[in-house]
């Protein structure tokens, strides 16, 4: 027959075993959490990089529209000069020269700010370079055994907290960058429409001159 001390010892062993199982499960849970957030952080950095590349492409498209506009301005001046030379031969031609608002797309050209820097937070930039912000040393869990497993849980949760902060900052920055790019796309579309209208008018003017 077992003594009360033996029973107490058995209960203690069971309790310790249960605590160890819970600790192991907790460590594994923080590992999975860390892996998931780390993957999300990498995806955020990759998305920010793609946004930067898209921004550069939009800048190139807008510059092309600006060059087209400048070329059409020069062509328009030359066509009008030719028109003046043949003015006597074109008395029957009614030329309506009015500002149709096509230049409105370029009104704020000098005030435009081109953003080509990658829209990611400073913390994300440090992470991409391999510099990770050090998380707090403790305070995420209530320590019981004070062993290596609890140390790992503290470290994992600290890294998770740090990367969650990075993700929040990247989300805000990418949202702002998307808004800016949407505005730029609208501006590019307006310039494209204005260029198309200007080209049509120049073609029509050239045809009228040649008819005479």
Automatic annotation (TrEMBL):
Residues 1-28 are annotated as: Disordered. Residues 1-21 have a biased composition (Basic and acidic residues). One of its GO terms (biological process) is synaptic vesicle priming. SUPFAM superfamilies: SNARE fusion complex. The keyword Thylakoid does not apply. Its main location: other. Keywords: Coiled coil, Repeat, Synapse, Synaptosome. Residues 20-82, 147-209 form the T-SNARE coiled-coil homology domain. InterPro entries: SNAP-25_dom, T_SNARE_dom. It is found in: Synapse, Synaptosome. One of its GO terms (molecular function) is syntaxin binding. One of its GO terms (cellular component) is plasma membrane. It comes from Stomoxys calcitrans (Stable fly). It comes from the Eukaryota. This is Synaptosomal-associated protein. Belongs to the SNAP-25 family.
